[in-house]
Amino acid sequence: MASSVFGEAAEFLADQTGIDELVLGIFVLVSALTIFGPLCGALGGALFNPINSIAMISSGRGTALGHVIRMLGQMAGALAGTVAAKRYLPEFLHGKFHMLSGGIKEGVAFELGFACEGTMSFVLNYVFLISQEADSRLMTLWTPMLSTVVLSWVGYYFTGPSLNPFVSFAWHMHHKRQNDLEHYLVFWSAPILGALVAGLVYASGHRAPGAPSRKVRKPSKSAIAARKAETQLILEREAAARESHGHGHGTSHGHVAEDDEASHGRGHGQAQERPGRREREQQGKGAAHHQGREREAGQGKARR
């Protein structure tokens, strides 16, 4: 609905200032993007161009189901916006509605128009995907805007340009500047093809095989502090475990030493006891032998 009055606004400003209408059209576009860019960010990163969603699908960013749901909302918004613009905007703003469906400029070949839309879609989406890696929120917001401005300036002399299949289709339903085949090939197939190629090229050049597609964010200060505290706690536990292990090891050595000394003492005592036993045994044997000789001598006297 907002983009439907860009042309009328640029023409009005050109009549008032004498500045070229194309330049003022770029100025109006930049002003609108400046307003809608932060608004989209406040709504959770809303997109109003389906070729951005298609590029993100082919690059592996997000889920296909999520982007399909988003594109359904984009189509519904485009159709509702055209109906609202025709019904609620004043009549003097309807002068350029018929040009919003897109159309190849007079004298431009069909093939050149197709190549123009496809190439501009590729460049726009490739820049868009790269900008999502920027650490600066300003760069993420303004890089796609500036690329849109430059491409709109270049594409003005070929196809308008459109760069948004849903907006072109919504206005094509009201004002048909070309036949359906030309519309779907140039303003649908070419931008979608360019977005698919941009996503594939980005995925192959900016992501290692097997690497996650999600953007890696820097940890917050609270997360860093929590990790430091957790690391310190682990180190303290390891130090306490080592100290406890060292104390237990020393105690076991002490017990082993005491056991060795006790066993050594017992062995020494047994060694000292052994000679005494031998002497007593020898004395007992000597006494028995002496008694045996005395008995033999007594028996000899009795015979005599």
TrEMBL record:
It holds the Pfam family MIP. It comes from the Eukaryota. Its main location: membrane. GO terms for cellular component: membrane. Gene3D superfamilies: Glycerol uptake facilitator protein. The keyword Ribosomal protein does not apply. PANTHER family: AQUAPORIN SIP1-1 (PTHR46739). Belongs to the MIP/aquaporin (TC 1.A.8) family. SIP (TC 1.A.8.10) subfamily. This is Aquaporin. The lineage of its organism: Eukaryota, Viridiplantae, Chlorophyta, core chlorophytes, Chlorophyceae.
